[in-house]
Amino acid sequence: MNVFITGATGWIGSATVDELLRAGYKVVGLARSDVSAASLEEKGATALRGDLDDLDALRRGASEAEAVIHLANKHDWANPTESDRAERAAVETLAETLIGTDRPFIVANAISGLVQGRPVLEADPSPAVGPGSDRGGSENLALDYVGRGVRTIITRFAPTVHGTGDWGFINFLISAARRQGVSGYIGDGSNAWSAVHRSDAARLLRLGLEKAPAGSRLHAIAEEAITTRSIAEAIGRTLDIPVASIASEDADAHFGLVGSFFKLSMTGSSERTRELLGWTPASPTLMDDIKAGAYKHVGKP
């Protein structure tokens, strides 16, 4: 099977390319630069030059593939409206190209913001509908194409997809801890995050490609709830610095951009996903990674 992947050289995408190549798939990855193209070709994948705004490249990649995995996102925190616009345009372009083919179309989303007060379930629909909503309402947009001959599969990721080389939320928390000389948590630290190792996430994507029916919502979640205090304490032990509670009103100043997320509980269940795919996470936990020094390089001068 020939699989087209956007975000193929990103944190999750690069692991997914490796997973698919090991399983014997042919992979074409969207590449924004010569460096990205070269990294794909060195692995044995094929590079298609373009980015999320190059809709012709997206059409070409999707039309020539037997499956599409859409992982790319601009993540422009300074201009989220632009990120949402680009995400919706990309999903619409890819889905329109796949109409009537019954080919798998995996679309990434996050569990954050979907429900409040309890873990997000696979059965929970996304409240984001329409161009002006989070991620341009791309999850619901993609699911609208199920009735038009597209095997849409939504994959929602935990807020931390961790591992050696991670540049996500944990990276920012450790940078803040080094900068402040204190590993902080907010309030009593009872807010919790779900987590998954990137290699487990990549394997889930392959299994979803192979097994998930149209309209599925999959959850890439290995650990359902790790308290933010536990995360801060693990960071403190690793960096050998104090651990302290940070007042909510001081969170942005202490943590920077990630402070607004660290205030929240972002948890979900993957029970249905595991039953559907036979997926059993087997990689190190978040605490294992922090303890083993996967992030010790972060924030060093």
TrEMBL record:
Residues 3-79 form the NAD-dependent epimerase/dehydratase domain. InterPro entries: Epimerase_deHydtase, NAD(P)-bd_dom_sf, NAD(P)-dependent_oxidoreduct. Transmembrane segments: none annotated. GO terms for cellular component: cytoplasm. It holds the Pfam family Epimerase. One of its GO terms (molecular function) is aldehyde dehydrogenase (NAD+) activity. This is 3-beta hydroxysteroid dehydrogenase. The lineage of its organism: Bacteria, Bacillati, Bacillota, Bacilli, Bacillales.
